[in-house]
Amino acid sequence: NPDPNPHCMCFKGRLGHDCSMPQDELCPNKCLDRGTCHRGFCHCRPPYFGLDCSRQHAWQLAPGAVHVPNRARLRIYMYDLPSHIAFPVAMDDDITESVFNFYHTYRVFLEMLSVDEVVRTENPWEANLFYVPAQAYSYSSNTNSPANQIMRAISYVRDTYPWFNASGGRDHFVWTTGDRGSCYLPEESYGDLHKRSKFCLAPHGAGFGIRLTIAMAHACVPVIIQDNVWQPYESDGLLPYHEFSLRLGKADIPHLVPILRSVSEARLAELRLAMARHF
């Protein structure tokens, strides 16, 4: 049947009945009123430049000078990556990453850091931390691996600027706001991390989530933190979760490390044997 109320499905960056309205919130900090927003890209007026038109200075070491990071207070330098390396690319029609607020924290951080004159520095030679805005969520969404995009951004930074190589990347950081965070990154596989772990967190997802079965498949005792959520077959009495898992509440999270350290090796063995019986 034809749609009784036809409407336009607008490309990312446009809104309205006929897609004539710009979606300025796609641009970080709405370009700080120093430029115009075009589908997520700030066209800055001189002398401003940068992702949100927040920059107006560039720095270079004087001849014979050496790189000395600030030791008195936190100073973070944020790279300006070109659009072919990292950009909030278009997703489905009329759908943007800003719809999912809990996946949007990297954007909130970027916008807050950008206007923080106390912490942010435009001078990379005084920085003691470096932020790589890889925009990984735009490329991978919440469940796919962000590894390719993050490594692409890091490779560009490593090959273009001197600061990554100076520390081996130890003072560089990125945001990974998908469901599995940095578990996809190549330092260690998700499965290997589970295999060598004694306890694995099982917070809820859309309901009880998938993390419980992933933990059990790797002989890792699930630490279920899901207040007021029944686990599969728990209400029927088919699975005695108290025999093979730890049940904690959100209020226990601040004390999570000492709680887990207090579990004896004998108790851990009991939990794993019971888990094997029911998996």
What does this entry look like structurally?
The protein is built from nine helices and ten strands. With 279 residues, it is an alpha/beta fold. It has three domains: 9-56, Laminin (Ribbon), CATH 2.10.25; 61-187, no CATH class; 190-278, no CATH class. The relative contact order is 0.08. A three-stranded parallel beta sheet has the order 5-6-7, with no helix packed on it. It has a three-stranded parallel beta sheet with strand order 8-9-10. Belongs to the glycosyltransferase 47 family. It comes from Tetrabaena socialis.
Query: Which bin fits the share of residues in helices?
Result: 25-40%
Strand content: 5-15%
Task: Return the domain count.
Answer: 3
What is the mean pLDDT? 85
Poorly predicted spans: 92-100
What's the number of extended β-strand segments? 10
Shape: globular
Based on helices, strands and strand pairing, what is the structural class? alpha/beta
List the helices and strands and how they pair.
Layout: E1 14-15, E2 21-22, E3 35-38, E4 41-44, E5 76-78, H1 105-114, E6 129-131, H2 136-140, H3 147-160, H4 163-167, E7 172-173, H5 190-195, E8 199-203, H6 211-217, E9 221-225, H7 241-244, E10 246-248, H8 256-261, H9 265-278
Short structural description:
With 279 residues, the protein is an alpha/beta fold.
Task: Please name the defining characteristics of this protein.
10 strands; 9 helices; 279 residues; Laminin; three-stranded parallel β-sheet; alpha/beta
